[in-house]
Amino acid sequence: MIPLEEAQAEVLAACGPLPARRVALDGALGLTLAEDVDAAEAVPPFRNTAMDGFALHAADVASAAADRPVRLKVIGTLGAGRAPSTGVGRGEALRIMTGALFPDGADAVAIVEDTRTDGDTVEVLAPARPGAHIRAAGDDIAAGQALFPAGTLLGPGHLGVLCSVGGQDVMAVPAPAVGVLSTGDELVEGGGPLEPGQIRDSNRRTLLSLLARDGFRPVDLGIARDDEEIIETALRAGAESCDAVLTSGGVSMGDYDYVKAVLNRIGRMRWMQIAIRPAKPFAFGVIGSTPVFGLPGNPVSSMVSYELLARPGLRRRAGRPDADLHRRPVPAVVDDGGWRGARDGRTGYVRVSTRIGDDGRLRVVSSGGQGSHQLYAMAQADALAISPPGVDVGPGDAVDVLRLTP
Among 270, 301, 324, which residue terminates a domain? Predict the structure, then answer.
């Protein structure tokens, strides 16, 4: 058996980032910036008001109070998107709406709640300090300011900022297109009665869903029957049209499997036994320059192998920085029950459910059966507890966990 870290290093060495390209902002959510971005203009681009009210001279209303209002002449109304036609003189007030360009002459805003209008005059019921409720040009972003460095994962806020400075597109690493192929005469889709020896194909749907969850572009390569020519055609097509390919099953040592035979012929593959439980068998290599991940066939093993090995490699393909490839362990406390550590030298990845305890600490409990075929317990889990080999774990013990949900 080999350490998990060795297998991960081999995956990452072959999973270089995809070439960056210019991407319109409406298609850039979840992508990784490939270059630093600076602000082309200031935000806001002009001095404007932060509240509805009246633009005026603060000195005119310094003595204003509810029982001693100051009366000013209203010279007009200014809404957002319009330029003021005149400045504001002493003894005058300009009705102004939030976001409107602030007029010359005035130096404060009396908010509408502190005023009372009467025809073409306004009574101001409280003082307004100089600069009150006025946003300076560049108050949020200065022109030329460094915004986001290369390696930034673009979220909704980033895209909003880029729009606010006039951005139309960005240089970014595209999301990898990842093909998922199932193989086997025993696999069927959909409902209906099963014939003897048949099973329903769950791994493909699971893997396609994991890819979509993680921001990759899942490509369904379907089911290939147990025929080397059919499997080779499907794998070659996937490698040519996708940025990576996932298969599940047929990676155990000593298995004679159609997928293994084909991959050994058309790819450069390494067939591994990793010191983890579940997901011990794993294959990795390339067809041409396209990474191919051979995941175990048992559904839980397939998912754990994806989390620990395929997902980091695909995140590198997507341009994520090295520090952001793997899930980071977080400390937790076993809440109830516990589990027995593996006696065969393998590190366990125990499926657990988490909650925040009254003491603010993360607490975990086994989500159910830990067999590599028990997909229901995996579906109930939101984390994997890292269980060192030979170490039994009981209530109150500290463990590190990999959280599987945002």
Answer: 324
